[in-house]
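Late entry, evening session. Most of the bench is empty. Finally got around to the prediction I had been postponing all week. Sequence below, unchanged from the version circulated by S.P.
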Amino acid sequence: MTRKLLAFALLAFVASHTIAADKIPRLSNGKPDFSGIWQTTSAAEYDLEPHAARKDAPPSAGIVIGNEIPYLPAALEQKKKNFANRDRDDPRLKGWTLGVPRGIYYPEPFQIFQRQRDLTLVHQFGHSVRTIHTNNTLHPGGDRNQFWLGDSRGKWEGDTLVVDVKDFNDETWLDRAGNFHSESLHVIERWKYLDANTIEYSARLEDPEVFSKPWDISVILHRHREKNFQLIEDYRFTLDYEQYYPPQPPAATPPGAQ
């Protein structure tokens, strides 16, 4: 009797997962279609690591697997300096692009347009546009490619999209708490449907100039299904920039100058 119950439970488990896989959106080639407008409900943007409430951040359990980012000693000191000056030095306040992976868990929506050859990600904040190539092309190569969003090349492992991202500059942070990276950052993303309206996004970050070993994050993305929902141009980053970097008045014209 026990064996029959176990067998029935196993069949039910397999059947439920098969039904869920069959219901996810797919392209004509059978690959999962991530097209849509997505957003996280996590507080990862404020600090990737677990933290209590503070005046500029809600409390959060964090999204770092193992809770702690493995900084090298000198890099940890820089991170502490970043944290102390976060209300001024965060690149987000200058209107710069959020970068990868920060743009994914920033608390504003982003939209994915997907074709068989690529995915285009459009972020509401900063109007950043990122392309993930899925046509078996390689990174451009060379030693001095430095892109704000890196260079993204994806491949499929079953229904999971695995994206290799490299060739970054060092101008972006990973969150508002001052977690940062160098030009050597290498990110491996994994995009997977949990159901038709939920994506599990995970990423492994490597950077031998900043971190002592690779580390991982995981966050859930939810599809916006409100009627007529759309991205809206966001000027808050401009207002923040002008608050901290106000326009300077023109220099006075010397007497007698034309």
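Two things to note before I forget:
The chain has one domain: 32-244.
The mean pLDDT is 88.
Will write this up properly tomorrow.
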